[in-house]
Amino acid sequence: MYVILVYDFGEKRVGKMLKLCRKYLSWVQNSVFEGDISEVKLKQLVYHAKHFMDEGTDSIIIFKSRDEQFLDKEIVGKERGSTGTFL
Predict the structure, then answer these.
(1) Which end of the chain has fewer CB atoms surrounding its CB within 10 Å, N or C?
(2) For the chain, how many structural domains are there in total?
(3) What is the rounded average pLDDT for all residues in the chain?
(4) Residue 36 belongs to domain with CATH number
(5) DSSP letter at 5?
């Protein structure tokens, strides 16, 4: 499945979340990641995030799609992170 993951974490935990997300998805811009991921890998990511997140103040929002082709993505301004394939 294709996901867009957005998070809002406190200053003390934001670095841990950034590092965790980079293991699973491609960085798009501040606190935003996207990419193809299996359901199992997504559950692992969320499971690990819950270990250090403060559920009273931090949040993770996950938008899911069957495939990237079903998303219309428009970038206005400078693209921060490239999600293309590197050869």
Answers:
(1) C
(2) 1
(3) 88
(4) 3.30.70.240
(5) E
**pLDDT value for 83:** 53
- Residue 72's pLDDT is 75
What would the pLDDT profile of 14-40 be if each residue is shown by its tens digit?
A: 999 999 999 999 999 999 999 999 999
Domain containing 16 equals: 2-67
In a domain, 72, yes or no: no
| Within-domain flag for 73 | no
Q: What is the pTM of this model?
A: 0.82
Q: What is the DSSP string of 1-55?
A: -EEEEEEE--HHHHHHHHHHHHHHSEEEETTEEEEE--HHHHHHHHHHHHHH--T
Q: Could you tell me how many residues make up the chain?
A: 87
For the purposes of burial, counting CB atoms within 10 Å of the CB of 12, is it exposed (0-12), middle (13-18) or buried (19 or more)? exposed
Give Cβ neighbours of residue 43 (< 8 Å, ≥ 6 apart).
none
Tell me the C-alpha distance between 38 and 25, whole Å. 11
- Does residue 79 lie within any of the structural domains? no
